[in-house]
Design brief:
There is one protein chain. Helices cover about 75% and strands about 5% of the residues. By secondary structure, it is of the alpha+beta class. It has a domain at about 15-35 and about 415-515. It is rod-shaped, with a radius of gyration of 67 Å. It comes from Aliiruegeria haliotis.
Length: about 525
């Protein structure tokens, strides 16, 4: 109880300091509560509505996940250009005429609050609020926000669907040109290699086999005709030889033939006397063989000469034989010419067949490229159809879109400042600041004020303590001075704050500047 009395006396002694601080803060709070302008808050809600046509029937080409879509809208809504465009058509912030574009953008961003809510199996909802100095400004800014959101969402969906369709149409056109080029390339290759294409290989192989068979048959026919010709000539020669032999039989024998007959006669005579192993008989037989060899050689030479002469002579002398020989010669010439043509065609076919494998490789590569391009072209055509359907869905607003759940409504009463709470907060802050100042002053002053302080500082127990005794006049003077001080504080502090507010800087501006320094807002 003694300590409480002591602390109460110390507080009473420092009460003017407490009153100065508490009164200053409270008066500032009261003045601020009276001078702060009202703030009106408007709001609206939008939701990302799901597609009206199921994906199994028709798929939209402008689909974006709902949370991502709301995030994109949020980022585009608060861009500098968009906020300045809105501020150019209406009064969005207080004292807008005196603010720079950067300050206007900062103020509008500070006054705008966006809250997104979404979840699994839940609709994606965005709530947007705006604080403005007047109800009309709050409603106008929110309507501008809403118009921008709906317009930008529609433009984004339409542009995305149209750009998707244009992209695939360009793909179809490009792939169509590539198809035409590749087809023309294949056609040119087939035209330049028409005799060496793989698809005609079987025909050429069978043709080659038939031609080779015909060549063989032609060679056989030529040989047959040549044989027949030779037989005709030989028959004619044989007849001539028979006539020549008859004539030769009537002619005189030659010396060698006479000698041969003489040696034969000697051999016959020797055989009657000697045996076959007798040297005399062996010598005669060897001599006979030598003479017969010589006679045979001479006969062969003479026969060839006679044959060559008699052949021509026979052909020339016998019209029938000459006609047959000419017929055989003509047939042999025709057959040889035809065989030469067939052999040339066989050679060409063999060269063509030899070139076919290389052409097959080149043609297979061209056809493979053509098939790949054709597959890409078919896929692109299918995607063009789907993109066209998606574009139609977006143009008719049957796809995923942002719709208004709660439109902006002009607020009827301000949401801040809460003047009563501001005054109470100022009063509490003033009292706390005053108590803090008193505590600080007392903590700094270490002079002894009671017997316990003397004991604590000097370790001496005083016999008795005698307080300062004031006279009646001193007590009255001290009390009057305190009252005048309190009165001066009660009157002077509000007067000083009023002069600062009226002549130097408004209290709300000073408070806002202080909050801006720490990045805070009302």
């Amino acid at each position: 109880m003694t300590d409480l009395s002591y602390y109460a006396s110390r507080f009473a002694r420092r009460f003017p300091w407490f009153l100065i601080v508490a009164m200053s803060v409270t008066t500032f709070a009261v003045g601020l509560a009276m001078t702060l302008p009202p703030v009106y808050r408007g709001e609206f809600r939008v939701v990302v509505e799901s597609k009206q046509i199921p994906d199994r029937l028709a798929e939209s080409t402008a689909y974006t996940p709902a949370p991502e879509q709301l995030q994109l809208i949020e980022q585009r809504l608060l861009t500098r250009g968009n906020l300045l465009d809105i501020a150019a058509t209406l009064t969005a912030v207080r004292d807008q005429e005196d603010l720079t574009p950067g300050e206007i953008v900062s103020a509008m961003r500070a006054n705008t609050t966006l809250r997104r809510s979404s979840g699994r199996d839940l609709a994606a909802v965005m709530k947007i609020t705006y604080d403005a100095p007047t109800p009309e400004a709050a409603s106008a800014v929110l309507n501008a926000y809403l118009t921008f959101i709906l317009q930008r969402d529609a433009e984004r969906r339409t542009e995305r669907a149209v750009s998707t369709l244009e992209f695939f149409e360009q793909q179809v056109a490009r792939l169509g040109e590539e198809l035409e080029k590749k087809s023309a390339q294949i056609l040119a290759f087939k035209t330049s290699n028409s005799d060496n294409l793989p698809e005609t290989l079987d025909f050429r192989m069978s043709r080659l086999a038939r031609l080779e068979e015909r060549v063989s048959r032609g060679e056989a026919e030529i040989a047959d005709r040549q044989t027949q010709r030779d037989q005709v000539i030989r028959m004619a020669e044989l007849a001539d030889r028979l006539e020549s032999s008859a004539a030769m039989g009537r002619r005189q024998i030659s010396p060698r033939e006479a000698r041969l007959e003489k040696v034969h006669a000697e051999l016959d005579a020797a055989l009657t006397v000697y045996s076959e192993q007798s040297p005399q008989v062996q010598r005669l037989r060897s001599h006979i063989a030598q003479i017969e060899g010589t006679l045979d050689a001479e006969a062969a030479v003479r026969a060839r000469e006679i044959a060559s002469a008699t052949g021509a002579e026979t052909a020339a002398s016998d019209p029938l034989v000459a006609m047959q020989v000419r017929e055989f010669d003509d047939e042999i010439s025709i057959l040889s010419t035809r065989n030469a043509e067939l052999e040339a065609e066989v050679t060409a076919l063999q060269a063509s067949i030899a070139r076919t494998p290389a052409n097959r490789i080149v043609l297979d590569g061209l056809l493979r490229d053509l098939r790949n391009i054709q597959d890409q072209y078919n896929t692109a055509v299918d995607r063009v159809s789907r993109a066209s359907t998606g574009e139609r869905i977006e143009l008719l607003s049957h796809g995923q879109r942002i719709t208004v759940v709660e439109p902006p409504v002009e607020p009827t009463k301000p949401v801040k400042p809460n003047r009563f709470r501001l005054v109470l907060a100022g009063l509490a802050a003033g009292i706390a600041a005053g108590l803090g100042l008193v505590f600080l002053i007392e903590s700094i002053n270490r002079s002894p004020r009671r017997p316990d302080d003397i004991v604590a500082q000097f370790d001496v127990m005083p016999i008795a303590t005698i307080p300062y005794i004031r006279s009646r006049q001193q007590a009255v003077a001290d009390r009057g001075a305190k009252l005048l001080t309190i009165l001066a504080i009660l009157v002077g502090v509000p007067a000083v704050l009023y002069l600062v507010h009226d002549r130097y800087i408004p209290l709300e501006v000073a408070a806002q500047t202080f909050l801006d320094r720490f990045g805070m807002h009302w």
